[in-house]
Design a protein that fits this description.
heterodimer; A: about 375 residues; alpha+beta; Rossmann fold; OB fold (Dihydrolipoamide Acetyltransferase, E2P); 2 domains; six-stranded mixed β-sheet; five-stranded antiparallel β-sheet; 8 helices; B: about 400 residues; mainly alpha; MetI-like fold; two-stranded antiparallel sheet
Chain lengths: ~375, ~400
């Protein structure tokens, strides 16, 4: 049972360096919230503020309705898993996991039970008497998670826990964390990552942080399907969403946009008569583009292709200063390289953004 | 010729000689001995590269051999001969004579006292300063001030402290700081606080710390949960016995502190107070070595991953627990290296004793005893025997020090 409420939380470092401004967020019991954002957006800082490792310089943080701004970290009912594992190198796995309980002066039987339980969950039983240096990266990460489990906290905090693991291990550990969460439905988890695959697969809700604030909060699919602005649209999804400039030439139930590059986009977003001639940015995800013969949305020569087996990624020649348009087609299409290819998209996959504010167009 | 000119010529000749040696030796190796020509080109290059390190090491090895290795054997030889009998072989007679002298055993006892006190206090102070100055804005200034004595020679430091301990007859103005402070005490409340209560608290605290450490060391052995080999257990037991002895001594002295009669209003000649004058000498070395310990330990503390400290804070550890259970164990290797390095300096301590008391009033140490025998009594045999004893004491610690330092570097 743990709800977190952040209201108007600010972080300013000495010298008036403001890294987070006016963060408002309510987290319910049992959620797995993922903070994502580009490097330096303050996602780790926000997590460390919740942990109590950084001072909150403005606003309030409540855990279970109680303001904990000045409560020491150990009394907040949280446990944290660090990116670098942060295992105590001079202690065995068993001592690492039982340290917090020893500090709390728990009975030995209780400590032993908690440690062996965590070791069983994480399959660490054969390694309990080893030092961290005798473990592999994945095992170390599991010990770090075990150290959190042993304390049975209300809130688990993960600070990029998988970024030091190799690709195969990352997937395996990601699934382990997801299963761990399922086994503990009444525990709240907050997970920081820059990897959007982790965000999409793990999160019950994603918090996209950018520009010192929250860009959008929502379920992974909500963020994917209705991003609130161009930043979120381009940040979620890989490769990033294509943005093309254009002008509204037809309004009503469906909207027609003449693109400056010559193509024509039709969107299922309804528009009003007053929007006629409005300059908009059209957003289409690479995976939503399909080759077509006529009525194309975009046409250009394919500069480069990357065949990944199940999909082929097409990079079109850049036009002007805009970044190149990217399309993702199922199957192998290496032969399209250096060909003129026309693309279109289903109209419910065409997003419209206001130019200037870059907010998603809504009726 | 002007001495400065001579010095300059020496420098030019020395540096030029070195450069010339390295250049010419290299040329001869590459052009004459193993020229990379014809069929043998590749093999000759490899051979030349095998020889080259020795070529570069030769001057250093030669100098070390001449000035370090050879003297060891020569000293060993001298310690077995008698000068008065024209260098005749006398076996262990010199050692026998030395072991029969009270002054030797006094030096031995004092050296052991130095060995226990100076490395422990220097390392503890160094660690304390390193930790306390770690996070504060003026920490670097404090560190520079504490490091400064390292730049002073032992003799210079001795002169400074001789002034601190200086005593003038009653009625004359005291120039020694310690006597100036001492004369402020006249038996009142302040005297009780500073001369009885404070030392008693320090002694009791020491006894408690030692007893607790002994308990920590012995607990795994007593409860049968030891994981180490028997010889390590034996060493731990021996050290624990020493610790218990020290703790009991401290408790006895706590009682003494309250019973002793102080002579108020009398300037003290500190350096002539038997037993205690040893500590007044040790203060000089502690004052110097604390800076050394601080610099090394401060760097080691900085090297501790910050996350482990943060994890400990999240685990609920208070600052003392973070320091003693997270930080200190992680830099234990460095602490041992610092400790043993200071131990080596202490075993060889000479200048301080020579400059301050010259071994009088029961402050003799081995190195000064050796100097006495060699250059005052002109007794080469006994002097060399003393030198060999010092070397025997230093060698195991030196080996341990190097092993630890190498492990740290890995």
């Amino acid at each position: 049972m743990a709800e977190l409420n952040l209201s108007a939380v600010d972080k300013t470092y000495p010298g008036n360096v403001n890294v987070l401004r006016n963060i408002n967020l309510d987290i319910d019991t049992g959620e797995l919230i993922v903070f994502v954002g580009p490097s330096g957006c303050g996602k780790s800082t926000l997590l460390r503020m919740i942990a109590g490792l950084e001072r909150i310089t403005g606003g309030t943080l409540k855990i279970n309705g109680q303001v904990v701004n000045d409560v020491p970290p150990a009394q907040r009912g949280i446990a944290m898993v660090f990116q670098s594992y942060a295992l105590y190198p001079h202690m065995t796995v068993r001592d690492n996991m039982s340290f917090a309980l020893k500090i709390a002066k728990k009975a030995r039987a209780e400590i032993d039970a908690a440690v062996s339980n965590a070791a069983k969950i994480l399959q660490l039983e054969p390694f309990l008497d080893r030092l961290p240096k005798a473990l592999s990266g994945g095992q170390r990460q599991r010990v770090a998670i075990g150290r959190a489990i042993v304390r049975d906290p209300q809130v688990y905090l993960f600070d990029e826990p998988l970024s030091n693991l190799d690709a195969a291990l990352r997937v395996a550990t990601r699934i382990e964390i997801a299963q761990l969460k399922e086994a503990m439905p009444d525990r709240t988890m907050i997970y920081v990552t820059h990897d959007q695959v982790e965000a999409m697969t793990l999160a019950s809700r994603i918090v996209v942080l950018a520009n010192r604030g929250i860009a959008q909060v929502g379920s992974p699919m909500a963020l994917y399907e209705t991003p609130r602005n161009e930043f979120v649209a381009q940040f979620i999804g890989s490769p990033a969403m294509n943005i093309l400039k254009g002008k509204i030439t037809g309004v009503g139930e469906r909207t027609e946009v003449s693109l400056h590059h010559g193509g024509k986009a039709v969107s299922s977003v309804p528009t009003r008569d007053t929007d006629m001639g409005l300059e908009v940015n059209v957003g289409v995800r690479p995976e939503d583009l399909q080759p077509c013969d006529e009525d194309y949305l975009y046409t250009a020569k394919v500069d480069y292709t990357e065949a990944l087996g199940e999909v082929t990624i097409l990079y079109f020649s850049p036009q002007g200063d805009d970044p190149p348009v990217i399309a993702k087609l199922p199957g192998v299409h290496a032969s399209l390289r250096r060909q003129q290819v026309s693309m279109s998209a289903a109209m419910d996959k065409v997003h419209l953004f206001h130019q200037g504010t870059s907010l998603l167009y809504r009726d | 010729m002007h001495p400065a000119l001579q010095g300059l010529i020496t420098i030019i000749l020395g540096v030029g000689g070195c450069l010339g040696y390295f250049y010419l030796a290299n040329q001869i190796l590459d052009k004459v001995i193993f020229p990379p020509r014809l069929d043998d080109a590749g093999r000759n290059i490899n051979r030349a590269n095998m020889v080259r390190p020795w070529l570069f090491l030769f001057p250093a090895i030669f100098a070390l051999g001449l000035y370090l290795a050879y003297p060891v054997f020569e000293t060993l030889r001298l310690s077995l001969t008698d000068r008065l009998q024209d260098g005749a072989f006398v076996g262990l007679a010199n050692y026998q004579q030395m072991f029969g002298e009270d002054k030797f055993w006094e030096a031995m006892r004092n050296n052991m006292l130095w060995l226990i006190v100076v490395p422990a206090v220097s390392t503890a102070f160094g660690l304390l300063v390193a930790q306390l100055t770690d996070r504060i804005a003026w920490g670097n200034i404090a560190k520079s001030l504490i490091f400064m004595p390292m730049a002073i020679s032992f003799v210079g430091a001795s002169v400074i402290f001789k002034l601190i301990y200086d005593a003038r007859p009653v009625g004359r103005e005291q120039i020694g700081v310690l006597n100036a402070v001492w004369l402020q005490f006249e038996g009142g409340v302040g005297s009780f606080l500073f001369l009885r209560l404070l030392p008693a608290i320090i002694l009791l605290g020491f006894a408690l710390v030692v007893a607790y450490t002994v308990w920590l060391v012995l607990r795994p052995i007593l409860t049968g949960r030891r994981r180490s080999g028997w010889w390590l257990s034996a060493l731990q037991t021996a050290l624990s016995a020493l610790g218990i002895y020290l703790a009991i001594l401290a408790v006895i002295n706590t009682v003494q502190v309250f019973r002793i009669e102080h002579v108020y209003g009398q300037p003290q000649t500190w350096l002539t107070l038997p037993f205690w004058n040893n500590f007044f000498l040790m203060v000089v070395l502690i004052w110097i070595q604390t800076g050394f310990a601080m610099v090394i330990l401060s760097a080691a503390l900085r090297g501790i991953p910050e996350e482990t400290v943060e994890a400990a804070i999240l685990d609920g550890a208070n600052p003392f627990q973070v320091f003693f259970r997270i930080k200190v164990p992680q830099i234990m290797g460095t602490i041992v290296v610092v400790w043993t390095t200071i131990t080596l300096t202490v075993l060889k301590v000479f200048d301080i004793v020579f400059a301050m008391t010259n071994g009088q009033w029961q402050t003799q140490v081995l190195a000064n005893y050796m100097f006495d025998k060699l250059f005052r009594a002109n007794d080469w045999g006994t002097g060399s025997a003393a030198a060999i004893i010092i070397m025997l004491l230093v060698t195991p610690i030196l080996v341990w020090n190097i092993v630890n330092a190498r492990r740290e570097m890995r």
